[in-house]
Design brief:
It contains eight helices and 17 strands. It has 389 residues and is of the alpha+beta class. Helix 3 crosses helix 4. The two termini are 29 Å apart.
C-alpha cells in the first residue's frame, strides 16, 4: 500500500477558490496577531508568541476574572468595594479614587474598560485575591491564564503597571479577547462605550482611548495600552456583517501610529478576505483507486459543506490535493473514510477535510480478480520491457 494522490474530478474553474492570494499586510508593529474570529483563521502572526510588556492591555485578564466572579455570584454589580491606600497610590490612568471610599463593582468595571483605571483594577484585585493583596491576585491571574491556554502570559500586578516579568504575547491577548467576547456577551457592549464620567469633579479622564470607536468600521472593543517600555498597543475587534476580526498589536511609536495601523488592519482583514463555501456535501471531489473490486475506483465526497475564509484576489494555478493510502482494498463501504482533501490558500494555514466513499464497492468475483491480477502482471512486464537495454 502506498500514499497516493487522487485524481481530482473538479474542473479548473471550480477549483479557482484554491488559487487565491492576498497581499500580505506589512505591519509596523513590533508584534502582531490578527485572526478572523468567525472561522478561527489566523490572518497574520508577527512575533505573536513573544512575551512582551502588555501595559494596560493586560487589564483584560483582570476584567475576565471579574466577569467570572459576577457570573458565579462571588461579586454583585451593585456591591460596593472599599478603596485601599494601595489602590489610591497608583498613578497613570485612574478614577482618582480616594482611600476609604466605597465604589460599586459596576463603576469599577466601567472605569477599567473605558478609562483604563489602574486604581479600579487594584480594588477588584484585592476583593478577589486569595490573600487580599494585589500580588496574590496576580498569581491567581497567571494560574487562570494557564488554565485558559495562555501560554506566554505572566502577571505581576492587576493593571499592567511596568514590572519585571509582567508579560503577555499578542496571540494570548487575542485569545483572551475572543474569550471575553464569546463567554460574556452581556458585558461586552461596555467596551464600545466612548465616555464614562465617574466623578464630575475629576473630569480629565472620561473618554475611551480606543481610536477605532466611532469610525463606522464596526469596531466595538477592546483595550489600549501604553508605557515607555511597551510603546503603544491595542487589542481591537470589529464586526462587519457576520464576520468578526480580533487583533493585537504592540510596539508602535506614537498614539497616531497606533490609530493608523489599527484602522489599516481592520480594512485589510475585511476587504482582502471573504468567506467561501469551497466544498459541497456529497459532491465527488476526486476518485480513489480500488483493488480487487467490481469497480476500479470510487468517488470521494465530504460529509458536510466546508466554508473557509479565502483571499479575494486570485492568481493562476491552485494549491489543493487529495491524498490517501491506496489502492483501497475492496470491499468498500459507503461512507467509509478513505482520504483527505488538503487546501493550502496562499498566506493562510492549510485546512484538511476528511473524504469518504461516495458509494459501496463490493469485492470482485473470481474472474474479476483474475482479470485484475492479469492486467497487473502485464503492466509490470511491459514496464520491465520498456526499461530494459
Amino acid at each position: 500500500m502506498i500514499r497516493a494522490t487522487a485524481r481530482i474530478l473538479a474542473t479548473a474553474a471550480s477549483l479557482a477558490f484554491l488559487s487565491s492570494t492576498a497581499q500580505a499586510f506589512d505591519t509596523k508593529a513590533e508584534a502582531a496577531f490578527i485572526m478572523d474570529q468567525t472561522t478561527g483563521t489566523v490572518l497574520l502572526a508577527k512575533n505573536a508568541d513573544q512575551p512582551l510588556p502588555p501595559a494596560s492591555m493586560s487589564k483584560l485578564m483582570t476584567l475576565y476574572m471579574a466577569f467570572e466572579a459576577i457570573r458565579d455570584q462571588r461579586l454583585q454589580l451593585d456591591e460596593e468595594l472599599r478603596v485601599s491606600q494601595e489602590a489610591m497610590n497608583y498613578g497613570g490612568s485612574t478614577l482618582f479614587l480616594r482611600a476609604g471610599e466605597r465604589v460599586s463593582v459596576e463603576d469599577l468595571v466601567r472605569g477599567i474598560i473605558v478609562l483604563s483605571g489602574n486604581d479600579a483594577c487594584v480594588v477588584i484585585a484585592e476583593a478577589l485575591s486569595p490573600d487580599g493583596t494585589e500580588a496574590g491576585f496576580a498569581r491567581l491571574m497567571t494560574q487562570r491564564g494557564v488554565q485558559m491556554g495562555l501560554t506566554s502570559s505572566v502577571f505581576k500586578n492587576s493593571n499592567g503597571w511596568p514590572a519585571e516579568g509582567h508579560v503577555m504575547s499578542m496571540r494570548d491577548l487575542s485569545l483572551l479577547a475572543r474569550r471575553i467576547i464569546e463567554d460574556f456577551p452581556e458585558f461586552y457592549p461596555m467596551f464600545a462605550e466612548t465616555e464614562f464620567l465617574f466623578d464630575e469633579t475629576e473630569s480629565t479622564n472620561r473618554y475611551n482611548r480606543n481610536p477605532l470607536l466611532g469610525l463606522g468600521i464596526g469596531a466595538d472593543g477592546l483595550k489600549t495600552g501604553h508605557t515607555q517600555q511597551a510603546g503603544y498597543g491595542l487589542v481591537g475587534s470589529a464586526k462587519q456583517g457576520s464576520r468578526r476580526v480580533i487583533f493585537s498589536i504592540t510596539g508602535l511609536a506614537t498614539a497616531k501610529d497606533r490609530a493608523a495601523e489599527s484602522e489599516a488592519i481592520v480594512n485589510w482583514a475585511f476587504r482582502q478576505f471573504a468567506e467561501q463555501t469551497v466544498v459541497k456535501t456529497g459532491k465527488a471531489l476526486a476518485s480513489a483507486e480500488v483493488w480487487m473490486g467490481v469497480e476500479d475506483s470510487v468517488g470521494l465526497v465530504a460529509k458536510e459543506d466546508v466554508t473557509l475564509l479565502m483571499p479575494v484576489a486570485t492568481a493562476e494555478g491552485h494549491k489543493a490535493e487529495v491524498v490517501y493510502t491506496g489502492p483501497i482494498q475492496a470491499p468498500v463501504e459507503a461512507g467509509q473514510r478513505l482520504a483527505e482533501l488538503i487546501i493550502r490558500p496562499e498566506g493562510l494555514p492549510e485546512t484538511r477535510v476528511p473524504l469518504y466513499a461516495e458509494k459501496a464497492v463490493s469485492a470482485g468475483g473470481f474472474m474479476d480478480r483474475m482479470t485484475m491480477v492479469s492486467q497487473l502482471l502485464m503492466e509490470r512486464l511491459q514496464d520491465r520491457s520498456e526499461g530494459g537495454t
